[in-house]
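User: quick one, sequence for these tokens?
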């Protein structure tokens, strides 16, 4: 169902407004084109009059009308671009004019305003464009007439008529799944106990969610519930839909509550009087389904007669719009998507009439894929299932699965009409904003602020009187969220998503003008029509990936989207490829290239005369080209995270339209351009760097009166006159909400304390400020304004590195302060009354941090002579760290505290008070006296405890643990005197909920429990780790009783000689033992036989283990005292084992005792650096599930390596010089994908028959006696993707590595080729595969030539166009030939995204 032209009316209205602009008309009269523009206006008006009929005609499949609408849309964009050219030409040709902060946007974004009063001469090119536009518009009019389109007579579009949904009824759906929790919540709200009597205010229960999510179905379930029926005397159901007709709704409610009264022909007064009389004193329930009304007056009018009901009367409202819920004055119950299993049940019911696939198991997989496509939307599930009703042909199911929602049969498709209503009911200013989101792939988390900036740059947002465009755009965004078209991300507060079907709707509406590379990679026949496009980058961007964008010559937005892996996964893009792209896209308004390894911006960027938004954040640029100053229309320049940026363009002041300059996190930037204060329109300047007299002075901020958002003023020590700070007029900048003031960190040199104090005093911000940080201030006192109660909006405050301040300001008077960080205030000795400022301070404080306070001694809790009762009534998080002289105690009343961190406060005193912490969940305590820890009581809510470096702590006693009844995680670190964890059985009982126990770096620890008779461990332990306890000699003998233990790790305990004889629990899944040098045996799995009186034979113990053990992973490393055969004497491996890794165990000589017959679950074996190992387990080939075998054993001596199992996928044999032959019949290993042979000097050839042809990765290195010619084993590898090879490993005739020419028969499938250590090699006479991505060449000292092409022409011409990364190291001659700009190969490699030479880091490239 084509609806791609639905926003054309809104688009044309924009053109009408701009064609009627006085500025444009004035310009047109002076240029002699005013009559032409008047003619265009009339023609466009006549087109607007027939759009409704055209949209209706295309619904019937009229291809001529559809083609006409597409041509019209394309022309409308071109007219916009032409008008933009007018404005830009005007600006280029006019003399410098005085700028104004109030110049309105009268045409396109930044179009046709600021026009010179003088006429300008239109050049020949522009007049030619005008003539072409006039001709095309004439053709559109001619076609319109020939199509006989009718003018609109005020009738509703067929879209609205055809898509109007059937009215709902109160009857329940036959299948209702998975909403029991939501249903019970609403039922509790409905039938809760209420007092008798009438009430003035009805309780409204809004159910909010996107179209098709099941709001009506839930309301029906509640409405028909027997408990509801018995609770209410009257019930009524009214389907409202878009038109909120108070009379019609009142009539429906009246008819439902009193069916005897005739209502036809009655007016509203009569109906409301009758309804009031009917409901008076009665408890009723009314459901208003599908409400769209946002007019408060209509709502209150409807409620008038309903106010007469009895106490407990309720109204349920279902709506897609959160604003409707807010008008109703009630918190909404938001309905989320259904879980997958519930959708499967619903799908089966509507497809088969039953709620499962038991009779159609062959269709279950296809059904699940179809359901996944619906993304939890019940309406979509029901509709697609209905299309497959009783249909059991898998091909039909596959056809539905592979169909797009809008391609499904129209007569049976309920999904699109339901979703399309949300679009049709959007105001015209939001339609294009919504359609713009078609550029995003499904499941992409969209950054809110970025999207609003793009909307602004595209001219989709117009600021209203008293509100700038940013705030207007924020309103647009919130409106789309409110209407359930956007869904806020649960993980990122400033991001949002679109449901997949809403994304489909956006793409359907937008049509060919929007391009999403995530779904449309490759050829796109309508590329020339595209105006807005996104791009999903890979690690290396090749020119072929951008080829399609070269055809989008009318493109306005090119947006490179973030990769999900995050910032550090940036992309390489060569300067040449970028310049070629930008040269084709002259109409760009939005260019976003964030997170690229771009070091230089091409000069051709100055030709992008229409550009409004340029984002180069998180790139490697050091400077911008001077030509950037020619981008007259530029409004937003984003350079966030450009860590190498050293300067901005000198002529930045020429960008008089600049509104947004983000230079956050640019530490190398040391100066601002001169006269930046001339950019009076700036609304966001993230950083201002103060310079000396000849640089940017602080007073330049005075003229930037529109600043909003965040501002960091750095290098304030450079201010030479305090008057400059006063002239900055920060107190007038009411839009600033985040402010950072920073001086220099250097306190060793001279600091003018008096001047700095005056500067800070003059920098008083506006009272709207919410977030303030002051760093490295050198004054002795803070100004009075800092603690003034007038700053009622400050929520976060940080004082950092103010080394000379002797007293804190009265911050307790900041009534909204939620987070306070005081760090590095070296001169502060006391904290108390001066900080509080009032007897009842910090009413809103949630987080308080004191860190790095070397002289702080006393923390007083008195105000005057009276102790402050509740110093921090809402405090939840308290941090005190690195305060070595602090003696004062903590506040005595911290009832709201949930997290407490105390670290490195060795003199802190606990006496005489006891501190009750009833709400504490997490405690990190370290570097303090044990007495302070014992003073913390009543911690019944504590779940996580970390104790570190408590010098006098020898064990944990019952007095401390008695309240720790909910503790789940306990970590003990660096407690040097700790001998035992506990010596009292009561402690074990206290810690009944403990699940995780970690003990690290406690050198005095001898045993976990004291006493000759071992004390049990907490019975619910799931994870236990003991590490770096150098004197630990034994583990608890009753450890085998821990039936919940899953993960056990013992590391760096050099005195531990053995595990308990009783072994470890059978419940353990993962066992890790590392660097226990004295360990002489491995633990028994599962303890002794269950019948101790019976002989503990090997077979009986093995059976016991196999029956009960859960062990899946064993990793043993660095245990040199293990016996030569560690798996003898009853140490059997359980049948459940999946992963076995042994490394660095010098005493181990044999693994032959391992009985592999019983290890059929084993999947991975890794044996490394066991220098004396001489034998492997027998029968490895019988391990049917083994997929990975990695060996590095220098003493392992075999004439021929034993056969490998058929399922092996990865085999690595490295550092085994005594193995003389590889396993026979490798060719038969059809699953083998990864083979690595390295430092195996005795191997001379691959086995007879060669290597399996499906091999994908092959590494052969430092096998100096490999004599087999390379052609024999490399040629058959037709699936090979990675080849790493060095000169010593290429056999035949003494080794090719000693020759001057390298000839390798490379397979066409190869993607990665690494060549190394060929000292005599001069030429690469190889034909590189056409799909090769990486070519790495190492240590070929004489190599001077890159490969030729297939015909032998031109050295370097053999590099395939697919090459993404060329790395050359240790090849001095070839490196010189590839030097940037001067090397002979430079013209041939400059397009490659990543070219790394010599000692360059892998994240550097000479081509970016």
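Assistant:
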């Amino acid at each position: 169902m084509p609806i791609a032209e639905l926003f054309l009316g809104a688009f044309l209205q924009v053109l009408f407004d701009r064609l009627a602009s006085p500025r444009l008309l004035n310009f047109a009269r002076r240029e002699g084109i005013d009559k032409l523009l008047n003619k265009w206006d009339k023609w466009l008006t006549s087109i607007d009059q027939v759009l409704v009929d055209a949209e209706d005609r295309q619904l019937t499949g009229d291809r001529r009308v559809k083609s006409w609408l597409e041509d019209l849309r394309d022309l409308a964009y071109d007219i916009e671009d032409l008008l933009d050219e007018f404005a830009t030409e005007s600006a280029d040709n006019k003399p410098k004019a005085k700028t104004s902060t109030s110049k309105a946007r009268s045409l396109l974004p930044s179009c046709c305003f600021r026009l010179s009063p003088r006429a300008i001469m239109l050049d020949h090119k522009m007049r030619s464009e005008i003539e072409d536009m006039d001709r095309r518009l004439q053709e559109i009019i001619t076609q319109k007439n020939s199509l006989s389109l009718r003018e609109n007579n005020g009738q509703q579009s067929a879209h609205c008529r055809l898509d109007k949904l059937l009215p709902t009824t109160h009857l329940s759906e036959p299948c209702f799944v998975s909403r029991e929790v939501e249903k019970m919540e609403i039922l509790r709200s409905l039938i809760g106990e209420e007092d008798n009597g009438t009430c003035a205010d009805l309780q409204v229960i809004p159910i909010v969610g996107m179209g098709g999510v099941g709001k009506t179905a839930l309301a029906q379930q509640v409405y028909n519930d027997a408990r509801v029926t018995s609770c209410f005397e009257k019930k009524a159901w009214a389907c409202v839909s878009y038109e909120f007709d108070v009379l019609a709704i009142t009539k429906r409610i009246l008819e439902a509550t009193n069916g005897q009264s005739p209502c036809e022909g009655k007016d509203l007064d009569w109906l409301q009087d009758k309804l009031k009389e009917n409901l008076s004193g009665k408890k009723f329930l009314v459901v208003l389904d599908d409400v769209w009304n946002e007019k408060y007056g209509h709502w209150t009018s409807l409620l008038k007669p309903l106010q007469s009901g009895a106490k407990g009367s309720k109204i349920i409202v279902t709506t897609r719009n959160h604003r409707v819920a807010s008008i109703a004055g009630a918190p909404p119950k938001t309905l989320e998507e259904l879980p997958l299993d519930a959708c499967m049940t619903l799908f089966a019911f509507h497809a088969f009439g039953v709620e499962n696939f038991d009779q159609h198991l062959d269709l279950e997989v296809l059904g699940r894929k179809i359901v996944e496509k619906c993304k939890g939307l019940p309406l979509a599930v029901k509709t697609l299932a209905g299309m497959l009703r009783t249909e059991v042909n898998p091909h039909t199911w596959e056809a539905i699965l592979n169909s797009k929602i809008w391609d499904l049969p129209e007569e049976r498709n309920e999904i699109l009409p339901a979703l399309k209503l949300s679009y049709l009911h959007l105001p015209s200013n939001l339609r294009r904003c919504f359609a713009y989101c078609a550029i995003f792939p499904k499941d992409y988390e969209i950054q809110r602020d970025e999207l609003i900036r793009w909307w602004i740059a595209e001219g989709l947002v117009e600021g209203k009187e008293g509100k700038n465009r940013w705030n207007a755009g924020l309103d647009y965004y919130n409106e789309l969220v409110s209407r359930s078209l956007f869904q806020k991300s649960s993980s990122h507060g400033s991001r949002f998503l679109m449901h997949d079907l809403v994304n489909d709707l956006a793409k359907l509406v937008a049509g060919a003008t929007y391009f999403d590379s995530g779904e449309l990679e490759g050829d796109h026949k309508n590329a020339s029509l595209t105006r807005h496009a996104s791009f999903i980058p890979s690690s290396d961007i090749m020119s072929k990936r951008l080829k399609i964008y070269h055809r989008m010559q009318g493109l306005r937005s090119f947006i490179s989207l973030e990769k999900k892996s995050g910032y550090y996964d940036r992309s390489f893009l060569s300067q040449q490829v970028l310049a070629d792209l930008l040269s084709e896209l002259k109409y760009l308004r939005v260019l976003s290239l964030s997170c690229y390894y771009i070091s230089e911006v091409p000069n051709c960027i100055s030709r992008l005369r229409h550009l409004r938004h340029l984002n180069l954040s998180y790139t490697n640029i050091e400077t911008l080209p001077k030509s950037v100053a020619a981008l007259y229309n530029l409004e937003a320049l984003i350079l966030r995270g450009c860590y190498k940026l050293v300067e901005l363009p000198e002529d930045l002041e020429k960008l008089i339209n600049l509104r947004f300059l983000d230079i956050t996190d640019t530490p190398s930037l040391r100066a601002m351009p001169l006269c930046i204060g001339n950019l009076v329109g700036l609304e966001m300047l993230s950083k201002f760097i103060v310079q000396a007299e000849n640089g940017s002075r602080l007073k330049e901020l005075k003229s930037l009166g529109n600043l909003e958002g965040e501002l960091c003023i750095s290098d304030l020590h450079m201010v030479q006159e305090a008057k400059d700070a006063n002239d900055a007029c920060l107190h007038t900048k009411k839009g600033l909400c985040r402010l950072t003031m920073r001086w220099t960190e250097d306190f060793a040199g001279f600091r003018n304390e008096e001047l700095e104090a005056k500067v800070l005093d003059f920098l008083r911000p506006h009272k709207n400020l919410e977030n303030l940080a002051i760093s490295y201030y050198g004054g002795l006192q803070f100004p009075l304004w800092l603690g003034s109660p007038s700053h009622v909006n400050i929520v976060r405050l940080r004082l950092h590195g103010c080394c000379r301040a002797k007293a804190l300001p009265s911050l307790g008077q900041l009534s909204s302060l939620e987070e306070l960080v005081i760090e590095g205030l070296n001169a502060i000795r006391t904290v108390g009354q001066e900080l509080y400022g009032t007897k009842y301070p910090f009413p809103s404080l949630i987080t308080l941090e004191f860190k790095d306070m070397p002289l702080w001694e006393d923390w007083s809790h008195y105000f005057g002579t009276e102790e402050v009762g509740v110093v921090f009534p809402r405090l939840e998080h308290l941090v005190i760290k690195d305060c070595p002289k602090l003696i004062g105690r903590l506040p005595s009343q911290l009832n709201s505290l949930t997290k407490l961190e105390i670290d490195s406060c060795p003199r802190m005193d606990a006496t005489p008070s006891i501190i009750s912490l009833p709400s504490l969940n997490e405690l990190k305590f370290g570097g303090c006296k044990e007495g302070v820890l014992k003073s913390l009581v009543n911690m019944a809510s504590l779940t996580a405890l970390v104790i570190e470096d408590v010098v006098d702590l020898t064990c944990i006693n019952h007095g401390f643990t008695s309240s720790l009844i909910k503790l789940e995680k306990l970590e003990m670190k660096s407690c040097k005197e700790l001998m035992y964890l506990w010596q009292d059985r009561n402690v074990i009982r206290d810690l009944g909920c403990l699940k995780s126990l970690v003990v690290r770096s406690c050198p005095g620890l001898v045993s976990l429990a004291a006493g000759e008779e071992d004390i049990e461990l907490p019975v619910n332990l799931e994870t236990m780790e003991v590490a770096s306890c150098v004197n630990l000699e034994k583990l608890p003998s009753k450890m085998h009783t821990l039936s919940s233990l899953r993960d056990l790790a013992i590391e760096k305990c050099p005195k531990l000689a053995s595990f308990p004889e009783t072994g470890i629990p059978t419940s353990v899944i993962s066992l890790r033992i590392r660097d226990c040098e004295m360990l002489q045996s491995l633990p028994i799995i599962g303890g002794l036989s269950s019948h101790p009186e019976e002989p503990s034979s090997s077979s009986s113990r093995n059976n016991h283990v196999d029956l009960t053990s859960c062990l899946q992973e064993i990793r043993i490393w660095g245990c040199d005292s293990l016996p030569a055969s560690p798996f003898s004497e009853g140490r059997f491996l359980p049948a459940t084992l999946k992963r076995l890794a042994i490394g660095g165990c010098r005493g181990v000589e044999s693994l032959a005792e391992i009985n592999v017959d019983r290890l059929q679950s084993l999947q991975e074996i890794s044996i490394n650096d066991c220098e004396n190992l001489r034998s492997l387990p027998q029968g490895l080939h019988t391990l049917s599930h083994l997929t990975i075998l990695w060996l590095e054993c220098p003493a392992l001596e075999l004439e021929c390596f034993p056969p490998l199992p058929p399922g092996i996928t990865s085999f690595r044999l490295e550092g085994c010089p005594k193995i003389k032959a590889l396993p026979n019949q490798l060719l038969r290993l059809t699953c083998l994908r990864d083979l690595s042979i390295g430092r195996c000097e005795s191997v001379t050839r691959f086995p007879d028959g060669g290597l399996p042809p499906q091999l994908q990765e092959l590494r052969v290195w430092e096998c100096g006696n490999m004599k087999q010619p390379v052609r024999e084993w490399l040629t058959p590898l037709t699936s090979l993707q990675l080849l790493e090879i060095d000169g010593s490993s290429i056999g035949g005739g003494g080794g090719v590595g000693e020759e001057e020419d390298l000839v390798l028969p490379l397979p066409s499938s190869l993607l990665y080729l690494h060549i190394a250590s060929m000292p005599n090699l001069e030429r690469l006479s190889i034909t590189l595969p056409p799909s090769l991505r990486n070519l790495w060449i190492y240590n070929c000292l004489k190599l001077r030539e890159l490969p030729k092409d297939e015909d032998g022409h031109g050295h370097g011409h053999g590099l395939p166009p697919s090459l993404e990364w060329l790395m050359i190291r240790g090849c001095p001659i070839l490196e010189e030939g590839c030097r940037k700009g001067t090397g002979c190969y430079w013209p041939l490699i400059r397009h490659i995204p990543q070219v790394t030479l010599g000692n360059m880091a892998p994240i550097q490239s000479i081509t970016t």
